[in-house]
């Protein structure tokens, strides 16, 4: 999980919210606050799931991917939103 950049979308809080659910599902979870985490091609190839949580940021050609959940952490106080996103992450990792 890679978080950072614009704090208005609360990327760190979003990662902190979903990391425990992934761990409970049996995943080893690594968390980074820099896009440079994408520069380790061997590590990236070994991952089952990559969860970027960054907005308003630029990515270099060398970095592999870029995306964002596009929500603030409190959006996931709605149980259905949290559960839907959790299930989506678990489905993508399988």
How would you describe this protein?
The chain is mainly alpha-helical. The protein has one domain (2-93). It is built from 3 helices and 2 strands. The protein has helices at residues 11-24, 41-46, 79-93; strands at residues 2-5, 52-55. Strands 1-2 form a two-stranded parallel sheet.
Q: What is the arithmetic mean of pLDDT?
A: 80
What characterizes the major β-sheet? 2 strands, parallel
Number of strands: 2
Strand content: 5-15%
Structural class: mainly alpha
Radius of gyration: 13 Å
> What gross morphology would you assign?
globular
Distance between the termini: 16 Å
Oligomer, anyone?
single chain
SSE series? EHHEH
Give the low-confidence spans: 64-69
Short description:
This protein has three helices and two strands; from the N terminus they run E-H-H-E-H.
List descriptors.
two-stranded parallel ribbon; 94 residues; mainly alpha
SSE map:
Elements (H helix, E strand, L loop, with lengths): L1 E4 L5 H14 L16 H6 L5 E4 L23 H15 L1
Parallel strand pairs: 1-2
């Amino acid at each position: 999980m890679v978080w950072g950049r614009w704090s208005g979308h609360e990327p760190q809080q979003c990662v902190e919210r979903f990391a425990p659910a992934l761990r409970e599902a049996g995943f080893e979870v690594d968390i980074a606050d820099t896009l440079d985490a994408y520069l380790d091609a061997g590590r990236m190839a070994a991952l089952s799931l990559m969860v970027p949580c960054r907005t308003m940021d630029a990515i270099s050609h060398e970095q592999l991917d870029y995306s964002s959940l596009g929500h603030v952490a409190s959006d996931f106080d709605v149980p259905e939103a949290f559960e839907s996103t959790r299930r989506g992450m678990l489905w993508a990792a399988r």
